[in-house]
């Protein structure tokens, strides 16, 4: 199948040709015609499947060919926002908007992105200037709504991208507030990697007779990703990582740590080994995060160390190596992490350095992905068979350590009941490293959204959103 059979406009076909993509991915083959049809869509697809172009291309087509119904405004009246794309994280918002620009460059449509952690005034200016397509994280969008600096009354298409993540991060109340301000007649597209009961409830209330598509989850099908466990002692993880990077000549490695502190420490240690590394996490300023990411993408930086939430949606073509320096405490995050590699048909490798403390986490992950991962002990790094597990530190710092200046997504513990319908088998374990110490952590989930919005406490503190 080729892109030309999908019925996209010439302007969009030119932009696709510029990217060099020749064949639509499975999600694109299904989502593009469904969205062009004008109906609602419920799509099961993870990062790495090509989902962004799957909704961006038909959205641009509908708006630019005016199929949705309203007219492009003349130059002298400000444009009304016609499409709203909500994403859970700033990085993903920025990347989605970059895609909107890439694919929309031969159309007359314009776009902007708004997220927390950066000044609000330039965003207000942008919005005033007039925008057709707005990409936003829910928290900062709400700020604009409350200040009256954004008008959502002309929205024709709404996209919830990575809806499961937005719910995991406690954005449900924010999303509902946004939905309440949208015109009732609109096209709704909901993308989610997983379908918990919470997602199903959201979809039921939001979508009108949706087309439903699902592409294979990377964890069940992705033979292109070679996964491996390196059993190792807790205090040998860093030398083992340095050894793996050097002996295999890895040139571009994404490394996941559980905590921000762990990320910083690892960057320092790798630096001493002569391995260039930078960290992205919630305590880093937005500009530091953007810089690290762009150097990594441009292959100027060998190792990027990230915590889960900061890494959400990182979109790097053909990333060859992902290392779980620590296993994630949420099994689903393992799937999201390894989804960073082997994308769009390229082969990738995901290795996990697992110490005795993490055996239960590994069991949870293997249960979720329905596979036993191969163990590969590296000579010289054999784990001590008599080692006893120690409790795992799930957070970076204690209360009072919370304000890293990074903003809105940080906050209080989720306190979310474990029985949230997403098949997490980790019992009562905290599902995230949130807590007072995680500036990039989730917002309070409120177990269904009725409790007071805990984020209020952040607002007066001058934290960016
Ligand atoms: P996404 O799932 O939207 O995060 O996209 C995953 C990656 O696949 C991105 O790096 C895209 O640039 C790339 N991609 C998207 N569509 C295609 C395509 N049709 N062929 C090859 N690569 C693609």
From TrEMBL:
Originating gene: rhlE
**Molecular function terms in GO for this entry?**
ATP binding; hydrolase activity; nucleic acid binding; RNA helicase activity
Localization per record: Cytoplasm
Q: Where is this motif: Q motif?
A: 1-29
Function of this protein? DEAD-box RNA helicase involved in ribosome assembly. Has RNA-dependent ATPase activity and unwinds double-stranded RNA.
Give every Helicase ATP-binding domain span.
32-213
Q: Locate the region Disordered.
A: 376-465
* GO CC term, one of those recorded: cytosol
Gene Ontology BP, a term: ribosome assembly
Question: Which family would the database say this protein is a member of?
Answer: Belongs to the DEAD box helicase family. RhlE subfamily.
Q: What is this protein called?
A: ATP-dependent RNA helicase RhlE
Keywords, A to Z?
ATP-binding, Cytoplasm, Helicase, Hydrolase, Nucleotide-binding, Ribosome biogenesis
Which residue numbers delimit the Helicase C-terminal domain? 239-386
Enzyme Commission designation? 3.6.4.13
Its chief place of residence is cytoplasm
Ranges of biased composition (kind: Gly residues)? 397-410, 433-451
Start and end residues of each DEAD-box RNA helicase Q domain: 1-29
Q: Which reaction does it catalyse?
A: ATP + H2O = ADP + phosphate + H(+)
Database matches in Gene3D superfamilies:
P-loop containing nucleotide triphosphate hydrolases (3.40.50.300)
* Record flagged with keyword Cytoplasm: yes
**What PROSITE patterns has UniProt attached to this entry?**
DEAD_ATP_HELICASE (PS00039), HELICASE_ATP_BIND_1 (PS51192), HELICASE_CTER (PS51194), Q_MOTIF (PS51195)
């Amino acid at each position: 199948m080729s892109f030309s059979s999908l019925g996209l406009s010439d302007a969009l076909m030119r932009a696709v040709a510029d990217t060099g993509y020749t064949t639509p991915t499975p999600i694109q083959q299904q989502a593009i015609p469904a969205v062009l049809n004008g109906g609602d869509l419920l799509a099961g697809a993870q990062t790495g499947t090509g989902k962004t172009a799957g909704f961006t291309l038909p959205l641009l087509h509908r708006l630019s060919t005016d199929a949705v119904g309203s007219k492009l405004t003349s130059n002298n009246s400000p444009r009304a926002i016609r499409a709203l794309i909500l994403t859970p994280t700033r990085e993903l918002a920025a990347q989605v908007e970059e895609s909107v620009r890439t694919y929309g460059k031969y159309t007359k449509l314009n776009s902007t992105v708004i997220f927390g952690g950066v000044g609000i005034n330039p965003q207000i200016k942008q919005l005033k200037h007039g925008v057709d397509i707005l990409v936003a994280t829910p928290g900062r969008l709400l700020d604009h709504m409350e200040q009256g600096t954004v008008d959502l009354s002309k929205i024709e298409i709404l996209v919830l991208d990575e809806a499961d993540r937005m719910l995991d991060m406690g954005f449900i109340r924010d999303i509902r507030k946004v939905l309440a301000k949208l015109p009732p007649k609109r096209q709704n597209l909901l993308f989610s990697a997983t379908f918990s009961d919470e997602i199903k409830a959201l979809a039921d209330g939001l979508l009108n007779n949706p087309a439903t598509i699902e592409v294979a989850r990377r964890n069940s099908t992705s033979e292109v990703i070679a996964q491996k466990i390196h059993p190792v002692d807790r205090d040998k993880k860093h030398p083992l990582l340095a050894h793996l990077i050097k002996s295999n000549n890895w040139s571009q490695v994404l490394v996941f740590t559980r905590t921000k502190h762990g990320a910083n420490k690892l960057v320092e240690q790798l630096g001493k080994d002569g391995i260039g590394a930078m960290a992205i996490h919630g305590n880093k300023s937005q500009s530091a995060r953007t810089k690290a990411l762009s150097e990594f993408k441009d292959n100027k930086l060998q190792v990027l160390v990230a915590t889960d939430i900061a890494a959400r949606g990182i979109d790097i073509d053909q990333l060859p190596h992902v290392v779980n320096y620590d296993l994630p405490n949420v099994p689903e995050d393992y799937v999201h992490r390894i989804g960073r590699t082997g994308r769009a048909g390229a082969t990738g490798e995901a290795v996990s350095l697992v110490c005795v403390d993490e055996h239960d986490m590994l069991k949870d992950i293997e249960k979720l992905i329905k596979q036993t991962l191969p163990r590969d002990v590296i000579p010289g790094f054999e784990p001590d068979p008599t080692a006893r597990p120690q409790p795992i530190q799930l957070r970076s710092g204690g209360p009072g350590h919370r304000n890293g200046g990074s903003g809105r997504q940080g906050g209080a513990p989720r306190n979310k009941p474990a029985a949230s319908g997403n098949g997490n088998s980790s019992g009562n374990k905290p599902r995230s490293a949130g807590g007072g110490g995680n500036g990039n952590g989730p917002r309070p989930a409120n177990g269904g959204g009725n409790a007071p919005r805990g984020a209020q406490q952040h607002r007066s503190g001058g934290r960016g959103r």
